[in-house]
Amino acid sequence: MRILVIHGPNLNLLGTREPGIYGSVTMGEIDNSLKETGQSLGVEVECFQSNHEGAIIDKIALAKGIGFEAIIINPGAYTHTSIAIADAISAVNIPTIEVHISNIHKREEFRQKSFIAAVAAGQIAGFGKNSYLLALRAAVDMLSEE
């Protein structure tokens, strides 16, 4: 089982970016936790980050062809703006889980709308680094049931 994790814009700044909202954990620490948890679950996890919408779309478009069975995505600010990322997720027909470190539903009004939610199997938000780990477990469970 192979699962692709996509981190969107500015997530490379985790650890120093607004720690009151995003905590002090770095993206590298999240990636290491995902890979370790994946290994314990018998799953290969690959992590990818880009600040560029097109690069994220390209990665999604290639995912199925290179053997990924699920996607976990934190689209960052593209959550609220990118119909193109939502279209890419819909087009590849790979189960996708949307994650957010903060609870976007308790933040500014513009952050409460997600274009991704409509095409995702589910959304996990507000649990910090654990949002990713919960999504990984949910993806494994979802794929195991298929």
Cα radius of gyration in angstroms: 14 Å
Task: Determine the number of helices (DSSP H or I, runs of at least 4 residues).
Answer: 5
Please describe the biggest sheet, giving its number of strands, its sense, and whether it closes into a barrel: 5 strands, parallel
- Strand fraction: 15-25%
- Overall geometry comes to globular
Instruction: Assign the structural class, choosing from mainly alpha, mainly beta, alpha/beta, alpha+beta, or little secondary structure.
Output: alpha/beta
Low-confidence stretches: none
Main sheet strand line-up: 2-1-3-4-5
Series of H and E elements: EHHEHEHEEH
Please estimate the helix content.
25-40%
Q: Please, what is the average pLDDT?
A: 93
Number of strands: 5
The separation of the N and C termini measures 12 Å
Detail the topology: elements first, then pairings:
Elements: E1 2-7, H1 19-22, H2 27-41, E2 44-49, H3 53-63, E3 70-74, H4 83-92, E4 96-100, E5 122-125, H5 130-145
Parallel strand pairs: 1-2, 1-3, 3-4, 4-5
Helix pairs in contact: 2-5, 3-4
Question: What labels describe this entry?
Answer:
alpha/beta; 5-stranded parallel β-sheet
Account of the 3D structure:
- It is a single chain.
- The chain is an alpha/beta fold and 146 residues long.
- Helix content is 38%, strand content 18%.
- The chain has 5 helices and 5 strands, in the order E-H-H-E-H-E-H-E-E-H.
- The protein has helices at residues 19-22, 27-41, 53-63, 83-92, 130-145; strands at residues 2-7, 44-49, 70-74, 96-100, 122-125.
- The protein has a 5-stranded parallel beta sheet, with helices on both faces.
- Helix 2 runs parallel beside helix 5 (130-145) and helix 3 runs parallel beside helix 4.
- It is globular and about 35 Å long.
- The two termini are 12 Å apart.
